[in-house]
Protein backbone atom coordinates (compact mmCIF):
# COMPACT_ATOMS: atom_id res chain seq x y z
CA UNK A 1 0.00 0.00 0.00
CA UNK A 2 1.38 3.39 -0.88
CA UNK A 3 0.47 6.65 0.78
CA UNK A 4 -1.84 9.42 -0.48
CA UNK A 5 -4.96 7.43 0.39
CA UNK A 6 -4.30 6.76 4.06
CA UNK A 7 -7.24 7.68 6.32
CA UNK A 8 -7.05 8.15 10.11
CA UNK A 9 -8.09 5.07 12.11
CA UNK A 10 -6.98 2.94 15.07
CA UNK A 11 -4.83 0.68 12.88
CA UNK A 12 -1.10 0.20 13.40
CA UNK A 13 0.96 1.05 10.31
CA UNK A 14 4.44 -0.18 9.50
CA UNK A 15 6.17 2.57 7.53
CA UNK A 16 9.30 1.72 5.52
CA UNK A 17 11.48 4.29 3.79
CA UNK A 18 12.18 3.00 0.28
CA UNK A 19 13.87 6.03 -1.32
CA UNK A 20 16.44 8.53 -0.19
CA UNK A 21 15.46 12.12 0.54
CA UNK A 22 18.50 13.53 -1.29
CA UNK A 23 17.27 16.18 -3.71
CA UNK A 24 13.90 16.58 -1.97
CA UNK A 25 12.58 19.79 -0.42
CA UNK A 26 13.40 20.57 3.19
CA UNK A 27 9.83 19.99 4.40
CA UNK A 28 9.97 16.41 3.11
CA UNK A 29 13.29 15.82 4.86
CA UNK A 30 11.79 17.17 8.08
CA UNK A 31 8.67 15.02 7.68
CA UNK A 32 10.71 11.83 7.27
CA UNK A 33 12.75 12.73 10.34
CA UNK A 34 9.55 13.39 12.32
CA UNK A 35 8.29 9.94 11.36
CA UNK A 36 11.53 8.51 12.73
CA UNK A 37 13.04 7.50 9.38
CA UNK A 38 16.70 8.26 8.75
CA UNK A 39 17.74 6.20 5.73
CA UNK A 40 16.25 3.81 3.15
CA UNK A 41 15.35 0.48 4.71
CA UNK A 42 14.42 1.89 8.12
CA UNK A 43 11.02 0.86 9.50
CA UNK A 44 8.78 2.34 12.18
CA UNK A 45 5.37 1.34 13.52
CA UNK A 46 2.92 4.17 14.17
CA UNK A 47 -0.79 4.51 14.90
CA UNK A 48 -2.81 5.84 11.96
CA UNK A 49 -3.95 9.04 13.66
CA UNK A 50 -4.62 12.27 11.76
CA UNK A 51 -1.11 13.68 12.22
CA UNK A 52 0.64 10.52 11.05
CA UNK A 53 -1.68 10.18 8.04
CA UNK A 54 -0.88 13.75 7.02
CA UNK A 55 2.86 13.07 7.22
CA UNK A 56 2.45 9.83 5.24
CA UNK A 57 0.51 11.65 2.54
CA UNK A 58 3.25 14.30 2.30
CA UNK A 59 6.08 11.83 1.62
CA UNK A 60 4.06 9.06 -0.04
CA UNK A 61 6.52 8.72 -2.93
CA UNK A 62 9.42 7.97 -0.55
CA UNK A 63 7.79 5.38 1.71
CA UNK A 64 5.84 2.13 1.71
CA UNK A 65 3.02 1.55 4.22
CA UNK A 66 1.67 -1.78 5.47
CA UNK A 67 -0.97 -2.45 8.10
CA UNK A 68 0.29 -4.46 11.08
CA UNK A 69 -2.06 -7.20 12.24
From TrEMBL:
One of its GO terms (cellular component) is ribosome. Gene3D superfamilies: Ribosomal protein L30, ferredoxin-like fold domain. The keyword Ribonucleoprotein applies. It comes from the Bacteria. InterPro entries: Ribo_uL30_ferredoxin-like_sf, Ribosomal_uL30_bac-type, Ribosomal_uL30_CS, Ribosomal_uL30_ferredoxin-like. Residues 14-63 form the Large ribosomal subunit protein uL30-like ferredoxin-like fold domain. Keywords: Ribonucleoprotein, Ribosomal protein. The keyword Zinc does not apply. Signal peptide: none annotated. Belongs to the universal ribosomal protein uL30 family. Part of the 50S ribosomal subunit. This is Large ribosomal subunit protein uL30. It comes from Rothia endophytica.
Amino acid sequence: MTGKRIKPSDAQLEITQIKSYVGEKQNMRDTLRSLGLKRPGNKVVRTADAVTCGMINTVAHLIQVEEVK
